[in-house]
Amino acid sequence: MKFVLLSVVCVLLFSYNVCFAQSDSAVTLGKYKFSTTYTDTNYSTVLKITDGKKVIFTGEFEESVESIKEVDFNDDGNKTILLSVYTGGAHCCYIVYACRIKNNKFLISDTLYLADSYFNIEDLDNNGEQKLTAYNMMFAYAFTNYAESRAPEIFYTVENGLFKEVTKDYPKRIEAQIEEFKGDLKTFLDSKYKCEAEGEETFNTDAGSVKTLLAAITADYYTLGEVEKGYELINKTYPCTDRDKFIKILKEDYKLK
Predict the structure, then answer these.
(1) pTM value?
(2) Where do the domains of the chain lie?
(3) What pLDDT is stored for residue 11 in this prediction?
(4) Bridge partner residues of 68 (DSSP)
């Protein structure tokens, strides 16, 4: 299954990056050396960038700098420096900065907040253009516990120094995830899962697990421009008394309409 399991070690989650994970480390990109120093007294990391012996940048980040990597998003030789920071906490938070060095100055041009999600760098088109792939964590804890929650995939490129979401440009990948989620849903349908009594909480129940699957499927259909297919599936597979309330939450709170 591809839903997020954050207990996996850092090296696996950042398979395309250089992982630091709360230790003093260094990586060289071109003529620049990026050095990190973690301080456990205030749970922060100091990043120092040097050009030879000259320091061109010093900055402090909350908790740990997880990875630093150059990525060519457009296969044009213009690389973006991705700086990933983990802020700490039980399930939070990953922040990715789009950076560059110009005239020997380190510049941060945009910030991408990924909440609980890790990220990878993938060539989705097999054409040399890289994409940042991650998960949309909007349903974490929404309908059931964190481990059971499902997260739709989300894809980004960087244009003119800014992150740009391009998930809708990859319908086959989204369709494949829908089918995967539907396979998980079938397990509950085959077991003839139990609806809770009217007014009873569905969190940490089979009904809650079904709702998080249906929410993720509906979000994926929304990305494809076919959101009504999600609601048709909800009406078909979720007969519980809170169905209308569930649909209202998806439409009004999550704007899936």
Answers:
(1) 0.88
(2) 13-126, 172-253
(3) 30
(4) 83
